[in-house]
């Protein structure tokens, strides 16, 4: 996602996804380097199951990407890294994004 006029729905989705302390910590950790799930869970002090839930939300939103890789001993490991994004949150950005928000309950 780039800073150039995100859609209203995209902006709402990204802000809602980041409005969680665990997910913000995940993004911060991945901003420094990519990690596999077990390592990242240990570093953040949360369970792998909880971390995977947060990673799925971040990936669905397009903020992180993942790749399955084999370790030297043949073990499959899923690595996560931050996707490139640049979101500028200004009154103008919000006003522009709000113009094309989907209406709740609309029947299109």
Characterize the structure shown.
The chain has 108 residues and is of the alpha+beta class. It has one domain: Arc Repressor Mutant, subunit A, CATH 1.10.10.10. Helices cover 49% and strands 15% of the residues. The protein has 5 helices and 3 strands. Strands 1-3-2 form a 3-stranded antiparallel sheet. Strand 2 and strand 3 form a beta hairpin. The chain is elongated, with a radius of gyration of 16 Å. The two termini are 25 Å apart. The model has no long low-confidence stretch (mean pLDDT 89).
Structural domains: how many: 1
Query: Average pLDDT across residues?
Result: 89
**N- and C-termini, Cα separation:** 25 Å
Radius of gyration in whole Å, from Cα?
16 Å
Structural class: alpha+beta
CATH topology-level name:
Arc Repressor Mutant, subunit A
Outline: elongated
Q: CATH superfamily name? A: Winged helix-like DNA-binding domain superfamily/Winged helix DNA-binding domain
Please give the order of strands in the largest beta sheet.
Answer: 1-3-2
Please outline the major beta sheet: 3 strands, antiparallel
Supply the number of helical segments.
5
């Amino acid at each position: 996602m780039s800073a150039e006029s995100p859609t209203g729905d995209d902006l709402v989705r990204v802000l809602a996804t980041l409005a969680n302390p665990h997910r913000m910590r995940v993004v911060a950790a991945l901003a420094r380097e990519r990690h596999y799930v077990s390592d990242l869970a240990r570093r953040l002090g949360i369970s792998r199951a909880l971390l995977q839930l947060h990673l799925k939300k971040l990936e669905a939103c397009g903020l992180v990407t993942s790749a399955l890789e084999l370790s030297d001993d043949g073990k499959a490991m899923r690595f996560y890294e931050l996707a490139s994004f640049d979101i500028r949150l200004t009154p103008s950005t919000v006003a522009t994004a709000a113009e094309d928000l989907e209406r709740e309950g609309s029947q299109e």
